[in-house]
Amino acid sequence: MASVFLYHVVGDLTVGKPELVEFSETETVESAIRAIGESTECGIPVWKRRSHVGMIEKNEMRQQRFVGILTSLDIVSFLARTQCLEDQDKAMKAQVSDVVVPNNALLKIVDPGTRLIDALEMMKQGVRRLLVPKSKVWKGMSKRFSILYNGKWLKNIENGSSNNLITNANPPSSSSTPTYMRDKFCCLSREDIIRFLIGCLGALAPVPLSSISSLGAINLNYSSIEASLPALEATQKHPGDPSAVAVVEVTPDGHHKILGEISASKLWKCDYLAAAWALANLSAGQFVMGVEDNVSSRLLPDFSVNSAVQDNKIVNGVGSTRPRKFSSRSIGFNPVSPSFGVGRSMYRGRSAPLTCKTTSSLAAVMAQMLSHRATHVWVTEDENDDILVGVVGYADILVAVTKQPAAMIPTTRSINELGTEIQS
């Protein structure tokens, strides 16, 4: 196992991270759209309100107040409901508690001295956010031997168990040490972890040079929907991690030809009202490929879209409204193909899915995800760029980088080859 996982602690990744501002489940959907636009991984943690304001809250109580993570796909799916389309103003004023999917296991509170390897193990098992107490004296320096922290052995070493994942999860009380700021936390996402790891490629060798197929990083159990089916059926797939559904065309030999995707990543900073209408009324293929040349303009609705939601421009806390004609470009797509089902090989619009090949290196895939702020990359066959094989997400990468060398297939790729691949 790479020493970087043992010699670094979670606190090393928190330097410069802003203080967490809790987003309450009583906030409106409109407020959530603004917050998601400024978030990582296309989602925001949602919390219950504190019952006793002003009191110092224990970590156990704070953990119990965490509800779940709200994504852009959750909101678009909610707005695509019939009752929401009939009264969009009411839908935008609905409480987030009506939309978010409760899952308390998606976030864990950890101590700044938690070893990086233990944090990775948590995320490999489904945790998507780590809540870390902010420290007044933390210098951001690597703990060369991070099994020691504040002069004490960490609990997983003290107990002789390497499986105790939440290592010293509860920070010392304010009465025993002045190190921690009261009720001040920062939040680490899996994107933060990947961004840190890509700066340590040398220490992770030879893993970054290895292909994703040799590392077993390709997830074959992806969610998909045929292009001819209603786009709304994608929300019934209940994609877990990553929160994405591939839009495919089934070839005569039974393979999946990927056309696009319906995902939280693609809907991250879209026009939510327009996307909701499209999700409710179009086929999956039309949704991702564009509809300008397929649907008569008289069938496209006029929207009075709140510019505070669309452009994140707020004047005195209130966004102005302006009538707009529906367009797939307003969803965030920019198709160039003449029509759905024609000229697909020429299609390279903004909605084109982010793809790699089975022979792509792990480092190249990590670079793709970070440069596009994506939560996943679709994997296609080496011989055919359109034939879908699987998907690589954050969890798959974390599993791959922590694998023992004996579990990997040797590779002879050079550093020069890797550099060329990342640039391409």
Automatic annotation (TrEMBL):
<dbReference type="InterPro" id="IPR000644">
    <property type="entry name" value="CBS_dom"/>
</dbReference>
<keyword id="KW-0677">Repeat</keyword>
<protein>
    <submittedName>
        <fullName>Cystathionine beta-synthase family protein isoform 1</fullName>
    </submittedName>
</protein>
<keyword id="KW-0129">CBS domain</keyword>
<dbReference type="Pfam" id="PF00571">
    <property type="entry name" value="CBS"/>
</dbReference>
<dbReference type="InterPro" id="IPR046342">
    <property type="entry name" value="CBS_dom_sf"/>
</dbReference>
<feature type="domain" description="CBS">
    <location>
        <begin position="346"/>
        <end position="408"/>
    </location>
</feature>
<dbReference type="InterPro" id="IPR050511">
    <property type="entry name" value="AMPK_gamma/SDS23_families"/>
</dbReference>
